[in-house]
Automatic annotation (TrEMBL), chain A:
Residues 63-92, 94-123 form the 4Fe-4S ferredoxin-type domain. SUPFAM superfamilies: P-loop containing nucleoside triphosphate hydrolases. This is P-loop NTPase. Transmembrane segments: none annotated. It comes from the Bacteria. Keywords: Iron, Iron-sulfur, Metal-binding.
UniProtKB/TrEMBL annotation, chain B:
The keyword DNA damage does not apply. This is AAA family ATPase. Residues 59-88, 89-118 form the 4Fe-4S ferredoxin-type domain. InterPro entries: 4Fe4S_Fe-S-bd, 4Fe4S_Fe_S_CS, CobQ/CobB/MinD/ParA_Nub-bd_dom, P-loop_NTPase. One of its GO terms (molecular function) is iron-sulfur cluster binding.
Amino acid sequence: MQIAIASGKGGTGKTTVSVNLYYFLSVKYNNKVQLIDCDVEEPNDMLFFPQAKKKSETEVYTIVPEIDKAKCTFCKKCAVWCEFNAISIVKNLKFAEVNYDLCHSCGACFEACTFDALKQIENPLGRISEYQTTFGAGIMEGRLEIGSAMQTALIKKVKKQASTGQTITLLDAPPGTSCPVVETVANADYVILVTEPTPFGLHDLKIAVEVLKELKKPFGVIVNKAGLGNNDVYQFLKENNITLVGNIPFSKNYAANYSRGDLFENIPAELEKSYHTIVDQLQLIIS
Amino acid sequence: MKEITVLSGKGGAGKTSITAALASLAQNAVFCDNDVDASDLHLILKPEIKETHQFDSGSLAFINQETCTKCRTCQDVCRFEAIFTNNDGSPEVNPLQCEGCRLCERLCPADAIQTHQNLNNNWYVSYTRFGAMVHAKMGVGEENSGKLVTRIREKAREIALENKADFVLNDGPPGIGCTAISSITGTNAVLLVIEPTVSGLHDAKRLVELVNSFQVPICAIINKYDINTEFTATVESYLKENKIVLVGKIPFSKMFVESILVEKSLIEFAPNHPISLNLKSIWKMIRQLLISKTCFQ
């Protein structure tokens, strides 16, 4: 069972919700719960587990071309086949170059070249790390190489490496609604959208709902920081028959805990109650 | 004309609220929402759209089921796992996974695949009560958001030059991926909005590393600084160590949300409130930094 946690807008509380669900679901499901941080641009989940032990770390790469100028006839076929303008060839100057920022690692150039002039080399994409925490089945995160624009490729690799066989796998998605988010939720059985009751939160929630409808994914909504804005978000959920999985009240004290990285210390009683309700709701949804 | 881009690394730090406040102070500026994925600036600036443009958001493969021989070549060569076997046993393209590389089309022995351009992204030139604005709306799950950011920034600069505007103010995206990269390249300065939390600082550090690689000067605002004054001190020493100018600290205030609820910037909502006065002096400082190059390089 895979549950993805997404939001549209950044800063609504995806990480807080993911980390807390990891805790509360681990209690309920005998620690057979794992958490995967798919926000590879800015992975934050591990910041809340300073005691966790690192089990493994793997460098990951994409396969990109390197042009062997001794074999290259400068025929340009690879450049023509490259839809991403990553290869420049100037025959007169015997110039052949690959721009790795533009390369999507699709492999078309290797198929195009009939002179065996392209070598497959590895371009650093980022790191995948696995941690053991004091509860649950562990956490895995992908960390994008700074300057790389290939988030989707890394998310794919993180998801592939994740151990299967857990009762529940939680996927903490990046903000937004474009390709990296689509990749995160692609195989999820259920998606939780975390929103905040403000015009920004609602606007971005509507876009996220559109994406999930297009993907035909079952989903529900958690309203975080409840009490901070207005009631328009509840009206929207009602009008569109969207499940309200839970409501987490805004608490300035809890925000202060979060700022220190202390999510599990002194959880206010009302917040703990919210998470118990959410876990019960999810149990109904899962079964 | 100077271009400034508001970024944070972490989402929710307050980029848009601060951009809107600065927009109402800037006078003679052009605004550009670089967060094409989850653009929110228009919710406050209420732009009136004057021009709508289409943007090519990549290509998408289509398999003609009548000519397809089900040889599976397409499925084997696709590195994005975008082609799957549907219930009829035929290969089908998942439009959200297809990157439009056309490899399947080129290698299909039956010539059964065609790639079409997607035109689901729109971008707009608009007018707001504070000046011209360029913004965009991405189609569902579309790609090429980085290129779209580059395109709208070009347009914003063009308008700024035409109007002899002093500034282009970019509201940036969260993260450090393609859209963030596209909103940093060639800008005159980055205004970093940091919240004093472990995740806020962690993400800001990754962003600073990225911005430094482009050698763009950075100044910073600590937003919601009173959530954790101890951690704010940690953020301040980080900024100092990295020679990043701290232009101001703003306390947590529900007033930001209240002003958004009535579609106003904080400056319009409460012009004489201490936070508004604070933002005014912040803008003055950013202006000075941008104009007197020496302080910033």
